[in-house]
Amino acid sequence: MKVLVTGAAGMLGQEVVRAGEAAGHEVIGLRRGELDVTDVEAVRRRVDSERPGAVVNCAAYTNVDGAEDERELAFGLNGRAPGVVAAAAAEVGASILHLSSDYVFDGRKGEPYVESDATAPLSAYGESKLVGEAPAIEANPRHFVVRSAWLFGLGGPNFVDTMLRLGRERDEVRVVDDQVGSPTFCADLAEALVALVATDDHGIHHVA
Fold first, then answer.
1. DSSP classification of residue 122
2. Distance between CA 6 and CA 92 in Å, rounded?
3. Within 13 Å, how many C-alpha atoms sit on residue 23's CB side?
4. 138-194 pLDDT per residue, tens
5. Nearest-angstrom CA–CA distance, 18 and 144
6. What is the DSSP string of 166-190?
7. What is the CATH number of domain 2-206?
8. What one-character DSSP code corresponds to residue 120?
9. What residues act catalytically?
10. Per-residue pLDDT tens for 80-131?
11. What are the extents of the domains in the chain?
12. What letter would DSSP give residue 102?
């Protein structure tokens, strides 16, 4: 299958490209400078020219704290772009796999969240990720919305790298003790995404 990956230079996007190629797919990886996912016509033209069987949308605004000050940018990439990409994929009969986040929840449940749980984001970042889910779902019946958490891996800043760096630089490292999550290795997640997109198990999935 031909798979188009947006955000291919990112920490997860790089791994999706690798995993897709390892699985035998023809993978077209597009970096930020090669495709502006907020540009409706540019996205339509590129997807139409490539005519993939699936589009994996890894393009995103990922600065959780920065989203509070850069709401327009965050909501453009995380909120509006997913619908743009999903619609373009639908026009050529391709499925869309969109990456969402555990930040769509408020974290007060006290146990693992399931796909049917009510969403309640507490931050601008979480709001932007939630806003992006519905357009992707509505624009393409062959949709996969994958919520993951605490990504770490090569090629991007993440919690694990930060802790390793602080451990080298400081005698004592202090962290908050009121956050619970599922650290997710990007290479493992990418393999799961590539396997999922080859199925007809459309809908919302929690993968972490």
1. -
2. 16
3. 20
4. 999 999 999 999 998 887 777 777 777 878 888 777 876 667 778 899 999 999 999
5. 20
6. HHHH-S-----SS-----EEHHHHH
7. 3.40.50.720
8. -
9. 125
10. 999 999 999 999 999 999 999 999 999 999 889 999 999 999 999 999 999 9
11. 2-206
12. G
